[in-house]
Design a protein that fits this description.
9 strands, 2 helices, alpha+beta, 145 residues
Protein backbone atom coordinates (compact mmCIF):
# COMPACT_ATOMS: atom_id res chain seq x y z
CA UNK A 1 0.00 0.00 0.00
CA UNK A 2 1.36 3.41 -1.00
CA UNK A 3 1.48 6.31 1.41
CA UNK A 4 0.15 9.73 0.35
CA UNK A 5 3.61 11.09 -0.53
CA UNK A 6 4.34 8.11 -2.80
CA UNK A 7 0.91 8.43 -4.42
CA UNK A 8 1.51 12.14 -4.98
CA UNK A 9 4.92 11.51 -6.53
CA UNK A 10 3.43 8.98 -8.95
CA UNK A 11 0.66 11.40 -9.97
CA UNK A 12 3.22 14.16 -10.48
CA UNK A 13 5.39 11.97 -12.72
CA UNK A 14 2.31 10.85 -14.71
CA UNK A 15 1.36 14.48 -15.32
CA UNK A 16 4.86 15.55 -16.36
CA UNK A 17 5.14 12.53 -18.66
CA UNK A 18 1.82 13.40 -20.31
CA UNK A 19 3.18 16.83 -21.29
CA UNK A 20 6.46 15.31 -22.48
CA UNK A 21 4.55 12.85 -24.69
CA UNK A 22 2.78 15.83 -26.28
CA UNK A 23 6.18 17.36 -27.08
CA UNK A 24 6.32 20.08 -24.41
CA UNK A 25 9.27 20.79 -22.14
CA UNK A 26 8.78 20.42 -18.41
CA UNK A 27 10.87 22.28 -15.82
CA UNK A 28 11.02 21.34 -12.16
CA UNK A 29 12.05 23.63 -9.31
CA UNK A 30 14.97 22.63 -7.14
CA UNK A 31 13.86 21.46 -3.71
CA UNK A 32 10.32 21.34 -2.44
CA UNK A 33 9.77 24.99 -1.60
CA UNK A 34 7.61 26.35 -4.43
CA UNK A 35 3.82 26.40 -4.49
CA UNK A 36 3.88 24.74 -7.92
CA UNK A 37 5.19 21.26 -8.73
CA UNK A 38 6.49 21.99 -12.22
CA UNK A 39 6.40 24.46 -15.08
CA UNK A 40 5.48 23.56 -18.64
CA UNK A 41 6.65 25.52 -21.67
CA UNK A 42 3.87 25.72 -24.24
CA UNK A 43 4.90 27.75 -27.29
CA UNK A 44 7.34 29.88 -25.25
CA UNK A 45 4.80 30.61 -22.49
CA UNK A 46 5.50 29.21 -19.04
CA UNK A 47 2.63 27.81 -16.98
CA UNK A 48 2.93 26.85 -13.30
CA UNK A 49 1.25 23.52 -12.53
CA UNK A 50 0.20 22.21 -9.12
CA UNK A 51 -0.48 18.46 -9.16
CA UNK A 52 -3.02 16.89 -6.84
CA UNK A 53 -3.84 13.21 -6.50
CA UNK A 54 -7.40 12.34 -7.39
CA UNK A 55 -9.63 11.06 -4.62
CA UNK A 56 -11.44 8.09 -6.15
CA UNK A 57 -13.81 7.48 -3.22
CA UNK A 58 -16.77 8.78 -5.23
CA UNK A 59 -16.09 7.06 -8.55
CA UNK A 60 -19.23 4.94 -8.10
CA UNK A 61 -21.14 8.22 -7.89
CA UNK A 62 -19.59 9.26 -11.22
CA UNK A 63 -16.84 11.64 -10.18
CA UNK A 64 -13.37 12.13 -8.78
CA UNK A 65 -12.22 15.09 -6.76
CA UNK A 66 -8.98 16.68 -5.67
CA UNK A 67 -8.04 19.18 -2.99
CA UNK A 68 -7.26 22.73 -4.09
CA UNK A 69 -5.54 23.74 -0.86
CA UNK A 70 -2.80 22.21 1.20
CA UNK A 71 -2.38 21.67 4.91
CA UNK A 72 0.78 22.29 6.86
CA UNK A 73 1.55 22.10 10.53
CA UNK A 74 2.59 25.28 12.23
CA UNK A 75 3.39 25.13 15.94
CA UNK A 76 1.35 21.94 16.32
CA UNK A 77 -1.72 23.33 14.54
CA UNK A 78 -2.94 22.45 11.04
CA UNK A 79 -3.03 25.47 8.75
CA UNK A 80 -4.91 25.32 5.43
CA UNK A 81 -3.56 27.43 2.59
CA UNK A 82 -5.52 27.92 -0.63
CA UNK A 83 -3.57 28.49 -3.84
CA UNK A 84 -3.77 31.80 -5.68
CA UNK A 85 -3.44 32.87 -9.30
CA UNK A 86 -0.11 34.48 -8.39
CA UNK A 87 1.23 31.09 -7.28
CA UNK A 88 -0.09 28.70 -9.96
CA UNK A 89 -1.90 28.75 -13.28
CA UNK A 90 -3.41 25.25 -13.32
CA UNK A 91 -4.22 22.28 -11.15
CA UNK A 92 -3.55 18.91 -12.70
CA UNK A 93 -4.54 15.38 -11.76
CA UNK A 94 -4.58 11.93 -13.31
CA UNK A 95 -7.12 9.15 -13.21
CA UNK A 96 -7.27 5.85 -15.08
CA UNK A 97 -4.51 6.78 -17.55
CA UNK A 98 -5.90 10.23 -18.40
CA UNK A 99 -4.59 13.59 -17.18
CA UNK A 100 -6.80 16.58 -16.46
CA UNK A 101 -5.74 20.24 -16.48
CA UNK A 102 -8.00 22.74 -14.70
CA UNK A 103 -7.44 26.52 -14.60
CA UNK A 104 -7.15 27.80 -11.05
CA UNK A 105 -9.93 30.33 -11.77
CA UNK A 106 -12.36 27.44 -12.18
CA UNK A 107 -11.60 25.92 -8.78
CA UNK A 108 -12.89 26.69 -5.33
CA UNK A 109 -10.49 27.20 -2.44
CA UNK A 110 -11.25 23.73 -1.08
CA UNK A 111 -11.75 21.06 -3.75
CA UNK A 112 -12.67 20.41 -7.38
CA UNK A 113 -14.91 17.66 -8.73
CA UNK A 114 -14.60 16.22 -12.22
CA UNK A 115 -17.66 14.26 -13.30
CA UNK A 116 -17.71 11.31 -15.68
CA UNK A 117 -21.48 10.84 -15.59
CA UNK A 118 -24.34 13.26 -14.90
CA UNK A 119 -25.68 13.29 -11.34
CA UNK A 120 -28.59 10.96 -10.64
CA UNK A 121 -30.92 13.94 -10.19
CA UNK A 122 -30.20 15.06 -13.76
CA UNK A 123 -28.77 18.44 -12.71
CA UNK A 124 -26.03 19.53 -15.10
CA UNK A 125 -25.90 23.28 -14.48
CA UNK A 126 -22.66 24.14 -12.70
CA UNK A 127 -21.32 20.61 -13.18
CA UNK A 128 -17.73 20.15 -14.35
CA UNK A 129 -17.38 17.22 -16.72
CA UNK A 130 -13.97 15.57 -16.83
CA UNK A 131 -13.89 15.32 -20.63
CA UNK A 132 -13.76 19.12 -20.92
CA UNK A 133 -10.48 19.16 -18.97
CA UNK A 134 -8.61 16.30 -20.63
CA UNK A 135 -5.04 17.42 -21.16
CA UNK A 136 -5.05 17.26 -24.96
CA UNK A 137 -8.23 19.37 -25.16
CA UNK A 138 -6.89 21.94 -22.69
CA UNK A 139 -3.53 22.25 -24.46
CA UNK A 140 -5.37 22.89 -27.74
CA UNK A 141 -7.29 25.69 -26.01
CA UNK A 142 -4.09 27.19 -24.61
CA UNK A 143 -2.31 27.04 -27.98
CA UNK A 144 -5.28 28.74 -29.71
CA UNK A 145 -5.59 31.59 -27.18
Amino acid sequence: MLNTKQRGNITEVECMLAFLKLGYNVLTPYGDCERYDFVVDINNHLYKIQVKSANENHINDGYIEFKTANKTTREGTFVRHAYTKDEIDYFMTAYNGQCYLVPIEECSTCEKRLRFTPPKNGQIRGITFATEYELERMVTKIVNE
